[in-house]
Request: fold
Amino acid sequence: MSLKSKTAVVTGSTSGIGLAIARALAAEGANIVINGFGKPDDIERERAGIEHEFAVRARYSAADMTNPPSIAAMISDAEKEFGSVDILVNNAGIQFVSPVEDFPVEKWDQIIAINMSAAFHAIRAAVPGMKARGWGRIISTASAHSKVASPFKSAYVTAKHGIDGLTKTVALEVARHGITVNCISPGYVWTPLVESQIPDTMKARGLTREQVINDVLLEAQPTKEFVTPDEVAAFVVFLCSGAAKQITGANLSIDGGWTAE
Reply:
């Protein structure tokens, strides 16, 4: 499979799952727009590395995923520079763990904005061009928490359930335009996002670090293994292939059996 001449925008892609997705799409020949937070030198190293390793063009967008005009500008700028946005991967996400009665309102608003509303704004901006070209792939990183809940994650679980609904709705709207719309629902992936929530979970549940890893995180996954970023990235590449053209409106699990229980 080749994605040569295609352009992919991957939000939240300066590290973790998003970076793995960006690199996997670049390996198939797609030009890449990465986006996210981090130290400028680290971001530039990853951007330049994608160009050098895969012989594609890669750009960095500092678009703020809480700012709708900034998100729309990211899509518009990519279309102007590369001629199209053919693949949109909504991957940006943050987490906060707290009992609902103590959950900071500003954290709720931030998580809903970044984890759910940002996907809507990016999709809204990208769909007209995809319709005009008669081809597009929209893939959002949901979570096992788009299907089941865990305590102390009210905003995250709500946002990921919203991604599931948004995916299904848009898939129905664009089904006759050569555009597929899906979400991937990983279980726990060992990324900075997961690692960073361990201290809060330790505090909320009164557990040690090892107990959080083994009795909270991996307890949910029958395989007792973390999903890897590369496994999620390979799934995204498959969904961009011709073999996946009839897969749309789907919420696809890659969770070590978590949601089978």
Summary: The domain at 7-187+228-255 is CATH 3.40.50.720 (Rossmann fold). The chain has eight helices and seven strands. The longest strand covers residues 179-186.
